[in-house]
Amino acid sequence: MPAGASFQAVTLVSYKYNPHFYMETVLVTTKGFHNFEILLVFDDDGNCLSSLIDKVLYRYGFYDTLNEVKYSMGYVAISYTIPYLF
């Protein structure tokens, strides 16, 4: 990521379990850059076996991200504000 980007929030999107491993999908929200949906695979002991960027939600704006992210029924809501300079 560029130097101006910073981490804002992580939101659990979905999870799946089967007898061999546990999968979680999380949405990582960044300030000043894109948002990433990451697939994490864990074993039964809680060790992360794999991580994969599943989706990139592109954002080409000058808005600031707030630490309020909601996920419901396949939709993601991310709060943004216009910087004071604008």
Account of the 3D structure:
The structure is a single chain. The strands form two sheets. A four-stranded antiparallel beta sheet has the order 1-2-3-4, with no helix packed on it. Strands 5-6 form a two-stranded antiparallel sheet. The protein has no helices and six strands. With about 90 residues, the chain is mostly beta strands. It has one domain (about 5-80). The protein has strands at about 5-15, 20-30, 35-40, 50-55, 65-70, 75-80.
Keywords:
86 residues; mainly beta; four-stranded antiparallel sheet; two-stranded antiparallel sheet; 65% strand
Largest sheet: 4 strands, antiparallel
The CA-CA distance between the termini, in Å, is 24 Å
Gyration radius, rounded = 15 Å
Assign an overall shape.
elongated
Strand content: over 45%
Helix content: under 10%
| Computed structural class | mainly beta
Topology:
Blueprint lengths: L5 E12 L4 E10 L3 E8 L5 E10 L6 E9 L2 E7 L5
